[in-house]
Amino acid sequence: MKTILVPIQNTSAMKSTLETAVLLAQRTGAYIEGVPLWFGAPEFVVAELASSYSMETYRARREEETAGARKLFETFMQEHGVAAVRTTTDRPSFGWFAEVPPGEGLVGSHGRAFDVIVMSRPDAETAALYKRAIESGLFESGGPVVLSPPTAPKQIATNIMIHWNGSTEQARANALAMPLLRLAGRVTVLTVVGGQGVPGPSADQVRKQLRYNGIAVEAMNVELDGRSTGEAVLAAAKEQGCDLLVKGAFTRNRLRQMIFGGATSHIMEHADLPLWMAH
């Protein structure tokens, strides 16, 4: 896992996101690329509104926001000892790429050329556009998204928990996490008894798969005890001191999650550890 994409906004949440990205890059010797995440309208739309909003004003605002995002990103990397030029394969490096279109869709499209995308996890106050940017990464990039908690951990992927629910989405998340699972000192496969899940292979079969891949793995079963599946998963990860949770995203479709709730939505909005997610 050698390439990490970080969409940048000049917000307070970026500190934890960048700290998480640097931890991940230090773990794997990866290249981190920053791109500006800007939710302005496309230029052809602005051109149609030129009488009330000039193209010059639009471009000046975009250039100002892009410059601020770049300064935030590059200053952070330099302060944390990340090199602007790759020197050895085992040390992280960074770069900036500004030639991306505005809008949340760039996360999914540009993210297809990276091993993983790192973003801030949402909460109840997160703007809908940023949530759609996360979904773009999950549904359109073809790869995983790491969601950083409000406070970054001191280390990452040393003690990993997998929430096994039998689903295709979870199997994909597991497969994409293999490079980190092999690096981890401890891996636990969690089953929530009575929790949300779909028909599929048992947790024992998943542990067998991981062992054949050279990964020592432990089993853990928990009951709901009046909690939701998401609450039970996060409690188990906290109890075990995990620093990464591997979770398939949206096994139930997004509409059902919005109406009835779901483990993905709860975990995304309440996790205090990094999430490795894939759809």
Please characterize this protein's 3D structure.
This is Universal stress protein family protein. InterPro entries: UspA (IPR006016). The protein is of the alpha/beta class and 279 residues long. It has two domains: 146 residues, 3-Layer(aba) Sandwich (Rossmann fold), CATH 3.40.50.620; 120 residues, Rossmann fold (3-Layer(aba) Sandwich). Helices cover 42% and strands 19% of the residues. The chain contains eleven helices and ten strands. It has a ten-stranded mixed sheet, sandwiched between helices. Helix 9 packs across helix 11. The longest helix is centred in the first third of the chain and has 25 residues. It is globular and about 60 Å long. About 2% of the residues have low confidence.
Topology at a glance:
Blueprint: E1 3-8, H1 14-28, E2 31-36, H2 43-48, H3 55-79, E3 93-96, H4 105-110, E4 116-120, H5 128-140, E5 145-148, E6 159-163, H6 168-176, H7 178-183, E7 186-193, H8 203-212, E8 218-223, H9 229-239, E9 244-248, H10 254-260, H11 263-270, E10 275-278
Parallel strand pairs: 1-2, 1-4, 2-3, 4-5, 6-7, 6-9, 7-8, 9-10
Antiparallel strand pairs: 5-10
